[in-house]
Structures are given as C-alpha cells and as structure tokens.
Amino acid sequence: MFEKSLYDLIRGLRNHKGTEREYINESIKECRKEIRSNDMDLKSTALMKLTYLEMFGHDMSWAAFNILEVMSSPKYRHKRTAYLAAVQSFRRDTEVLMLAENQLKKDITSPTPTVISLPLIAIPHVINPSMANSILSDLIPRLTHSHPAIRKKTVVTLYRLALVYPETLRPAWPKIKERLLDDNEDASVTAAIVNVVCELGWRRPQDFLPLAPRLFELLVDSNNNWMAIKLIKLVRWPGTLLYITDDSQFATLTPLEPRLIKKLLPPLTKIIRETSAMSLLYECISGIIQGGILEAVEGTTEGEEVAKLCVGKLRGMMVIEGDSNLKYVALLAFEKIVRSHPYLVSQQQDVILECIDDPDISIRMRALDLVVGMVNTDNLTAIVGRLMRQLRNAPIMSATDDSKDDRGRNVGVVPYAESDDSDAEESLRQHEQNSSQPPPLPEDYRISVIRRVLDMCSRDTYSNITDFEWYIDVLVQLVRVSPATRNTSTAEEDGELEHSDDVGRSIGHELRNVAVRVKSVRPEVIDAAQNLVLVDRRDQMFPASGNGGQGVLEYAGWLVGEYATYLTRPEPVMTSLLHSNSLQLPAKTLAVYLQAVPKVFSSMAGNDQISWTPERKTLMSLLMARVIHFLEPLSTHPNIEVQERAVEYLELMRLAAEAASGTATGVNNGDFADPPLLLTQAIPALFSGAELNPVAPGAQRKVPIPEDLDLDTPINANLHSLLTQADTEGFETEEEDDVYAAYSDPITSHTDTQSQTATSASDRLDAPHKEPASYQNAAVEEEYLDPDILARRKADRKERYKDDPFYIDPDADRGSGAVTPLSRIVRDGNREDNPLDIDSIPIMELHLDSTSTPDPRARSPRRHRAAVQITMDETLGPDAPPQHIVQPTPVRAKKNLLEVDSAGLAALSLDEDGTRGRALTLAEQERKAAEEAEMRRALGEVERLRLEMQRASERLQGKEE
C-alpha cells in the first residue's frame, strides 16, 4: 500500500486550491490509521504530518500516547520526530507527562550527545514543578559533560527549571558558578551562563555581586558582541550590579557598589569609540545613561566628554546609517539623555526635527516625545510651526491606509508561488510605489501632536511664549485641524481632558487659561472665542467634515459670557447663543451657553447712560422675547444642569420683560428717561464683583471652616408648607404689588455704583507698548496658518509699525520703503502747495574723529522683549504637604513570553541563609529591625495575656475557697 510522505501532503495541499479543508480532514483520517500501525517508520511519518498540520491550528492532543511510543524508538530520526511533536503539542497539564518522565531521564543519561540534546531541548517546553524536582538530579551531572554543546543546553534547561520550581536553582548554582569562573571553559557555555546571570541579576543583584570581577573581565577581554550586550544590560537595569531598589519604592535607588561606576566607564567608552556593531554601540550608550554612570560623573570634565561622545554617536546612527531601526533606538537614547544634558540634545535639533516628518509613525512619536523635552524660548516657534504644517498638509488616514488593517488589500491567504516549479521567494503582490505626497496621519497621532503642542506652549505657565497673539492664532488653527471624535457620553464629558479623544476641550481650556492669566491679550482671546461661537463662521473655524474641535465651544461660550464687555459684536454673539443649533450641543456645552446668555444680555442692556427711548424699549423687548422663547423648551430638559439654569433664567427674563413693559419712555425727543433698574442695576449686579483668578489646587483645603457654621439646622423650618402653599395659591394680579415695587423703586444699596470694567482712553494711551515677536516669522507662518489669520496678523502688524523707521512695508512702493519723519518732511515739501521748510529738517551731530570700525569683541546687547504679566495661581498661606496622596494607577503586567511566572525567583537566595558573605543593606537592616520590634511586641502581648489568665485563675480559686 502506498503511503503519503510529508512532501506528498504539502504538494497535495497546494494542488487542492479552494478545497483545502476537505483535503486536510481526509489527511487527518489517514494519519489516524497510520499512527496505530506497528510499523515505527509509518508511525513516525504520520506523526511528522500531524505536526505540520498542528502548525496550522489543527489539534493533535489525541496522539499524545503515540508520541511516547515513537519517542521510545532506538532510532535517532524517530526520536527527533517524536520530541518535535512533543514540543508542539505537550503542555504542562498533559496527562501522559508522568509516563514521559522515565523516557526523558533515560535519554538524558544516553552516551550519545545527539540523543542527549533531544530531551534538553524539549524539557523547557513541557516541564512542570513535580517533574522539575525529579529530573534535577539527572541534569546537574550534564554540566560536566565533555561536549560544550551539552553543557550549554544544560545551563539553559536548568534556568527553565528554576522558573517553574525555584528551589532547583540552589543546588545547581555552585556547578553553574564553577563553569563561569573556569577560564578554560568554552565561549558558548560562558555566553549561556552570562545569559542566565543576566536574567537572574535584575531580581536579586546582591547574590551576583561576588561575580563582578569575572564579569568585568569578560566584558574587557571577550570578543563576543552578544555576550558584551548581555553584560551591559546587567549593568543597565535598575536594581542590578550598580543599583538595588527597595521593594516598597521602586523609584528610590540606593547605590550597591558605587566603585563599579568608575571601573566600567573606561571599557564602555572604548567600546563606543571602536566598535562597528550598531547593536553593541547602542547598548553601551544606553548602559551609560540608564545605569547611572552618566549621572555619577555629571559636572566633571570626563562626564562632559562622555556625554558629547554619546550624543555624537547617536547623531551618526541617525544621519549616516539611514536605518529606521537605528533611528528609532537613537531617539530612545536621546530621550533618556535629554533629562541630564538638554543643551547637548538641543544642538541636534536639525536631525531630530527631520524625524518629525519621517514616514514611519513610530519614529514620529519618538521624535515628538523628544522635542517636548528640549523645547525652549528660541526654538518653540520653529517646532510648533513644523508640527502645525504637518497637521495642515497631511491627509487623514482612511481604513485602507492603515497598515494594521489589510482587509481592503488581501482576501484570505496570499500565495507566493502558483506551483511547485515557480520561485517561492517571488511575491505575486505588486510592490508599493513611493509617493512624494506626505503620508496620511492616523487620528490618534493627530491627537497626540495637538496635545504635545499644548504641553510645550503651556509649560511652566507659558514661560517659553513671548508672543501670545501668535499663540492665540495657533490655538485657532488647531481647532481647524482637529480630528473627528466619537459621540461622547455624559460620563466621558465629566472625565479628565487628557483621557478624552476630543482635543477641542483641551484647546478651549488653553484659551480660557490665557484669557484669565494674561490680561494684556484678553481682547484678542475674546475676539477668537467670539468667532468660534458665531454660527455664520462655523464653516471657517471648524473642520469641513466631522465634528472635530466642537469641544472648544464649551470654553468659548464661557469666555464670551464672563468677559462680555470685551465683545465687539454682541448682537451676533447673542443670536448664535440663541440659535436652534445650540439645542443639539452636548448638555455640558448647552449649560455653559445658558450661563452666558444673561451675561451677554446684561452687557447689552445694562447701560444706564442711554435714555429709555421707544426704540430701545422695542429692541430690548424683542431680545427678551427671543431669550424666553429659547429657554422655555429647555425648562424640561433631561439634564439637571440645563434644566436648573433654564428655569432660573427663564423667570428672570420674564420679570425683566414685565419691568421693561411697565417703564414709560421719554415723551419728547430731548427728555431723558431712566431705563428700568432691573436691567441696569439688578441683573448686572448678579454678574459683577471680584474678578475671577486662577486658584492653586491646594488653596481650597486651606480655607478655615467658620466656627459658627451650622449645617444641621434648616434655613427655614416652614419650607415644606411654603412650597405647598405656593402650589395651591395663585400669584397676585395687581399692577402695584410688592414684587412690582421691589423691581421698580430705586435701589439704594451697593449696586448703585456700577463697576467700571472697561479701560479709559487715558489709561490706554499711557499703557506701555508691548513688543511683539519679529515680523520676519511671517514667511514660516504662511506654511501652517490659514489665509484669514495671516491677513489679520498682517493688518495688525502694519498698523502697529506704521511709525517705526526700521520697518519695511512689503506692500509699499519701490524705494527705501521706510516712512521716517525726514522722508515725510521731504515728500510733503516737494508738493507745490506746500514748499519745503529747511528749518524743519533735523540736524544730527557727527563725530568724524571717531573710528568707524567696530570692535569685533564688542557684541550688541540682545534686545529684551517686553515682559508679559501672567497671573499666577492664588493660594492661602505657605504650601502645606498634601493630606491625601493619590496612589498611582496600577499598570497591568505584560504576559510573560515563556508563560511561566518568575516571581518566585525574586525571593530565592542562592546563599544558605540568604545573607551570608555580604553586609546587610539599609533596607534589610530596617526590615530586620521592624521584625525584631514586632516580635518584642508579640512577646509582650503574650506575657500580658498570661498574667491576666493567671490572675483570673487566682480569683476563681479564691472564690471557691
């Protein structure tokens, strides 16, 4: 009978295109028959085919006992097939593992090295705690085997046993240590032991400190780059040979052996200068940075040289090599070194900024994290401009552009060869064509870029910003490039800004923060908020598609209400607030709009210097009618905040409308009629008072509680009866009732003196002129700002510098372009109707005897920018330590690739008593002292209880007597 081999199975699978499932099911049936045969060759072939099909996800656990049968064959090729099948299909809970234990022991003690290798390779995949303790006695003698390959595999297998059953490492460690200290040991065995030491060292570094001389010798003398990388990682990890971490505070590092720092610096520096292996170069640089070596030598000449050497090598990895992987790891190293040497990293600004436009999104993210740490006053505009240009020019990534989602390109499995005779390495898919267009950006990257821009600009309370008008334009432009967001629920609306995908809220928060803190640019901020609120400008201020940036409306509505006196167009703002589209906004934004409506109305109707004419009365009546019409349906809104504010302001507007209709207007044209006091004094008094300032987070906790504060006694004991009476009785209908008198008679309280929030003309003239940023940045701003923003900035700049003799107007006629006082005199004097007045030409004194050659050493003083006053957070008294410490959010541990919990190794000491041969660390001394104190307290408690029981017994005996 002809039986199919593994090659026949593969050929048949290729020839049955479209019917693979039926062919595989038929092949599995054939394998079930073949594996029950007494012919060991046929069993081995069937097992080989099942192992191949298992790689495609087909179960073969039913053949576990047959695997043991083939494993017991004396032929090596049969054993190899069986051990491969065991590695593929056996698990730690497989029932036949108890039967396989004897076979594993037998093959481990085989005199043939090739046979010994088979169980050594399979044991790490199938081991369990009970089997580990049983096989240990057979594995330890293999550490002295004559073949280096057997010794190497035994070392690795013992480490896997220690992961499953940590106690097996204690008896095996002396033999492993002996192999490591042997100078004549094979290099492969030494490298395997170094790998094991590296895996164990970061858990209990104190146990491996005696090996430091040998490890240092291997680092200096060995030519094995991979072993050198492992040794450097042993130094690099926090909590290893250089540093040990306390269990209670991972961030607190205590030096364990500081002498190693100076000992390791020369060989690591030599490797950095001489090695051509980029992987080893990066690990050396990372070891110097993460291992604390750079911090230990910081401030010394040697430390500066090492830092410059590392930065120079990292720059070469990014520029010369041109490899994306090297570029990524170089950015990682830059991000670590920027914390201690930011000035050195900022010198590499050109290559780092080039990575921001890299086609690889992961490299962009690394570069983005790096530029946030290196930003300063000088490069903030350039970095933000580059990021803004990227957001503006790059298209939005669609589903077909996502490399993680290939459903649009692939259907099922893509074959790489049509037949057995074709080249298997030739892909049938067409190669992707490189495009000169910028790559599309995913939405999460856009959100990350916008958040980084906001973080860079707002760092240290805007310490890096010199032109706040530019920052306001950047915020408006960020709204226009904001990505679309999903529909947020009420719970998400109340969440933190950094955890929300609506970056519009973060942008709005910055607008509000600038308006509150920087009073000099408050009119510009309110103008931007006004444009955002206006309905007729929504198409210009927000993205053309999607709902991106809509979260900014919540803060824009707050700004136009809180600072309504700064509005240049209050009527359109009120129209936009009362627009029907406002009803479709989220409840939180709608509640803010409701709060802004009476404030804007107060600024429009609260002027008591204008006579109450029929025209004004009609205008105010219509405006109040519109407000009432807008608020009436919102009085039954499902959101409690919206409903409460709508009901309150609805009643207020009804009272105002009643007061306006009952106030007589001026009869004659020249007569002055007082407007209703409800409009000019009562309503404005609700929203006037102390100016809102930023408050420190801990200031509220410092406010003392009044001693006479009683929160238990009700304010009005008859409240329930009053509410019941109000529901049953109607309101008075007389025209001259008490309520009417309260809102019609003049008020003689403090509300008579209306606060003047507007600045007088004399104060504005005497105010110091603010020096804006240089207009030469306009060429760069054109790349990331929209034309309307550029036109407004250009007009403002032209008006500001019209009398500046050093300003060259690009739109002026050809010539000098400078409009100076002298040129104005000459130009006016050339006209026929105004002859030139010679006496009006200014005279300047010239010192001809002085040299005209400037001193090259003399440097012109740097032009100081006008300081911008920024309001800081208000607080009460000195800063006190926080009473409540916010616990960090626990990070979910990553799943171990070996699927084995290695936490038991951290508590395992390789010494018999765990502390022999070394001094106790400070943490261990404190722990030991705490244990002794606890023991003393326990003994004292036991003694106290014993005495009480003794006294109780004596009392009972006394009563009995």
User: What gross morphology would you assign?
Assistant: elongated
Main pleated sheet: 2 strands, antiparallel
Q: What is the number of beta strands? A: 2
For the terminal residues, how far apart are their CA atoms?
104 Å
Q: What's the helical proportion of residues?
A: 40-55%
Proportion of β residues?
A: under 5%
How many alpha or pi helices?
Answer: 41
List unreliable stretches of 5+ residues: 242-255, 404-433, 731-736, 746-779, 850-864, 880-891, 913-918
- Mean pLDDT, as a whole number? 77
Structural class by secondary-structure content: mainly alpha
Radius of gyration: 41 Å
Please state how the strands of the largest beta sheet are arranged side by side: 1-2
Describe the structure.
By secondary structure, this protein is mainly alpha-helical. Among the domains are: 1-89, Leucine-rich Repeat Variant (Alpha Horseshoe), CATH 1.25.10; 602-692, no CATH class. It is built from 41 helices and two strands. Strands 1-2 form a two-stranded antiparallel sheet. A hairpin with a 7-residue loop joins strand 1 and strand 2. The longest helix has 39 residues, at 922-960. The chain is elongated and about 125 Å long. Residues 242-255, 404-433, 731-736, 746-779, 850-864, 880-891 and 913-918 have low confidence and may be disordered.
Please name the defining characteristics of this protein.
2 strands, ARM-type_fold, single chain, transport, 41 helices, 961 residues, mainly alpha, repeat, two-stranded antiparallel sheet, golgi apparatus, Leucine-rich Repeat Variant
